[in-house]
Amino acid sequence: MDVRIAPSWKEKLTDEFNKPYFEALAEFLRSEYKNQVVYPPGKEIFRAFDLTPFNQVKVVILGQDPYHGPKQANGLAFSVRDGITKPPSLINIFKEIKNEYDTPIPDSGNLERWAQQGVLLINSTLTVRARQAGSHQKKGWEEFTDAVIQKVSDERENIVFLLWGAYAQKKGAIIDESKHHVLKSAHPSPFAADRGFFGNEHFKKANEYLKQQGKEEIEW
Fold first, then answer.
1. Bridging pattern class, strands 128-129 and 38-39
2. Closest alpha carbon to 171 in 123, 99, 107, 118
């Protein structure tokens, strides 16, 4: 697979790529991409790490699984390609931003512009079989993304982590909250958004914190 990843991340994760669990995961993925329809396309698996180099990360948003519908997943958590209908969770994310900033909901659900501003949009599992949610869970991805979170927590300071829902909050338990700003709320999915996602003001709070740290705010 032609995988693209920023050199800074490649350097940070080389040890991880060489571990037995990752070699087993890579073997599994080679078979899956050869024999099944898998999302996102192989070259976009590490797109979050390509668009947001390690030293440019300002905010981390944790998702769970890539979208498993045709042409939806583009390697960034919660994001879809240009021209693709916005999934319900993403619509709710945009609604919350509209409520906080009184800005119109964008036509496109592509969050590439966030990634380029320093928002690392990572799912716990970076691949999925078409129309089979969770099909690539417990194959090694979770261990890999735990290592990513640990790297950011250990080697960076004053990062904003947005943890939406119980799954993200459990995964984010390894974050050192004494040196980072961790914001938690319900998940933006239609099943949970009314129970604490709407009104969480996470986007404003993230920017307020970045401003306090002398960093440029995110244009959500």
1. antiparallel
2. 123
Helix, strand, coil fractions of the chain, as percent rounded to 5:
45, 10, 45
Contact 73, 39 (CB under 8 A): yes
On whether the CB atoms of residues 41 and 74 are closer than 8 A, the answer is: no
CA pair distance 77, 92, nearest whole angstrom: 14
Q: Which residues are catalytic?
A: 65
Q: Give yes or no for residue 3 having a pLDDT over 80.
A: no
Collapse the DSSP code of 121 into the 3-class scheme (helix H, G, I; strand E, B; otherwise coil) and give the result: strand
Crossing angle of helices 7-17/141-155, nearest 10°? Answer: 130
Q: Which of 103, 216, 95 is nearest to 160 (CA)?
A: 216
On whether the CB atoms of residues 124 and 141 are closer than 8 A, the answer is yes
Q: How far is CA 8 from the centre of its chain?
A: 18
Contacts of 120 (CB under 8 A, 6+ apart): 48, 49, 52, 57, 59, 60, 61, 152
Q: Which pTM does this prediction carry?
A: 0.97
pLDDT at 174: 97
The reported pLDDT for the residue numbered 2 is: 59
pLDDT at 119: 98
